[in-house]
Amino acid sequence: MSNVVIQANNLTKEYVRAEFRVTALDDANLEVHQGEFIALMGPSGSGKSTLLHLMAAMDRPSSGNISVFGQNLQALSDAEIARWRNTHIGFVFQSFNLIPVLTAMENVELPLKLTKLNKTQRREQAKRALELVGLGDRLGHTPRQLSGGQEQRVAIARAIVTDPDVILADEPTGNLDAASARDVLTLLGRLNKEFNKTLIMVTHDPGAAKTASKIRYLEKGKLLPEGQKPAEY
Amino acid sequence: MKIPISYNIRNLIARRTTTIMTALGIALTVAVLLSVFALVEGLRSSLASTGDPLNLLVTRKGATAELNSSMTPEQFQVIKVKPGIAKLPNGEPMASLELVTVIVLESPDNPAGINISMRGLNAAGIAMRESVKITEGRWFQSGKREIVVGKGVAKRYPTARLGSKIDLGRGQWEVVGVMDGGRSAANSEIFCDLAQLAVDQNREAGLSSVLLRATDEVAKQALINDLTSERRLNVDAISERAYYESQTGAAAPIQFLGIFVAIIMSIGSSFAAMNTMYAAVARRAPEIGTLRVLGFSKPGILVSFMLESILLSLLGGIVGCLLVLPLNDFTTGIGSFTTFSEITFDFRITPEIMLSGIIFALVMGVIGGFFPAFSAARKQILTALKQN
Ligand SMILES: Nc1ncnc2c1ncn2[C@@H]1O[C@H](COP(=O)(O)OP(=O)(O)O)[C@@H](O)[C@H]1O
Ligand SMILES: [Mg+2]
């Protein structure tokens, strides 16, 4: 069996809001192996994003355990998590979340500011990432001067520029037209196959999910066992 | 820490209207404070640099100023032969008996007139004022109703121009010269012949003061002790520099008011900066969340927003300095409670004053930026990302 990258045990996240509590993720157990490309599917509000956020240590679980590369995330301090995220995780958002006042090049270079690389090396690496996503000719453009599909490709370049082990994407094609969505999915597929990146992608689109090597479903906060899907799917 | 400063500069440019308004508020606050500093500095330098450091001013015991002092020619005879007094090239002691009165001059700004000091002195008095030079015309002649006006007086009072005549009760005095006293008090005064002034004022037996020059610092102290302790003489002797420096107090009310206004304004400007920065933090919440996801730490976010506020206030500080720069060397006058007459001087904006303005602006930026920056750093990643 290949290396375990992500190991989640009895992972639960509850939100307490005023009177009632919402169990966004209920006792999830999951093992992700090196080089896997997993699509997370399920109805809206089923806990897909919550699971992804816990994997990126963007939030802390109410109970249970999650470790990435054997590192228990709960054991890390805020500052350690920030550094850990920078080196190990690339995150792609549905709404791209590029910095509007920075150019494509500067956006991609940004995570490298936290590394030991010097300016020339940073530029070089950012340029290579942008060329990989097919935007080598858009380095000086600001997000406003790019189409949605191009913005998302810049965001992917930003996610991979630090050469992270795991790429997490939350509905990366959710805001895109069909053609741009296809480009983005092809790109994510390449990252998995050619660069052997471990990918976990939340999606609503069954077509998109086919790019992945495995689909896991969530329903009402429960991560269904492998091979099982909710009634409506 | 690692978030590039260009990110902050670009954001300041992106919201240029609020940036300009906030910076302008800071600039005006800085300008008010710097105007006061420039005024005080101008006054201080115009008075403090008056006279040689070895000069002594001798007045009647208990007199607070030359104006309410009186000195008889007999006292002067005793004083001028004291040991330790320097000699003029002609062998005479450096001792000058002087009479100071106040005259009223009208100006376009002050039709009612302003008090100006008029000083009667002899050749020794002029010789002892090495920094005073005639720039137009000539010195007055003894026994004549002739006057030489300081350049500050000439500049501000059209009635005291070269060649004009001023009526002072007993007769008309002609302006025969204009003198430049460097940065000394002579610029604010009128000089004339001692005997002529004494006759016109009926004060032949009661003149004002004596100016002395000691041979050295030790002799100066000895002279002070000697003169003040001689009961028969009944005089005070102090360093001329100390005397003029004490007059800088004339600016104290303006200084107090100016600093008071500047502090009130700075509170307003700090709140304006705070408001601007809170708005920026709110609008850029998703960006803050994104930066955190990319691996930037909470302290990194704090520093970045602090830096942005500091840059904003630095801009305000620089504009504030530029606003007051035209004031430099602008001549004005201020009433002195010591001499009961006006001291003219130039606003002085030194590099130190500008630096203090920049620092003042930066303090506003730090105070205004801290709470918004702190709130930015404290945001939960997920909450921040959702605030669209
Ligand atoms: N910050 C929050 N506070 C309260 N409830 C939340 C919060 N975030 C998510 N939830 C709830 O948790 C559940 C799962 O949310 P989420 O993981 O975003 O679902 P999905 O991504 O599958 O649509 C939903 O019922 C949602 O309303
Ligand atoms: Mg979601």
Explain what this protein looks like in three dimensions.
- The complex is a heterodimer of chains A (233) and B (388).
- Chain A has helices spanning 48-55, 78-88, 104-109, 119-132, 148-160, 178-194, 206-209, and strands at 4-17, 20-33, 37-41, 63-68, 71-72, 89-92, 166-170, 198-202, 214-219, 222-223.
- Chain A has a single domain, classed as P-loop containing nucleotide triphosphate hydrolases (Rossmann fold), CATH 3.40.50.300.
- The two termini of chain A are 30 Å apart.
- Chain A has seven helices and ten strands.
- In chain A, helix 5 packs parallel to helix 6.
- With 233 residues, chain A is an alpha/beta fold.
- In chain B, helix 2 crosses helix 11, helix 2 packs antiparallel against helix 12 (351-378) and helix 9 (252-283) packs across helix 11 (298-324).
- Chain B has helices at residues 5-14, 16-48, 73-79, 123-127, 151-156, 194-200, 217-229, 240-246, 252-283, 285-294, 298-324, 351-378, 381-386; strands at residues 55-60, 95-105, 114-121, 133-137, 146-150, 165-167, 172-180, 189-193, 209-213, 235-239, 331-335, 342-346.
- Chain B is elongated.
- Chain B folds into two domains: 5-46 and 249-386, no CATH class; 62-233, no CATH class.
- Helix content of chain B is 49%, strand content 19%.
- Chain B starts with a helix and ends with a helix.
- The interface between A and B is medium-sized, with 26 and 28 residues.
- The complex binds adenosine-5'-diphosphate (ADP) and magnesium ion.
- Magnesium ion is lined by residues 48-49, 170 of chain A.
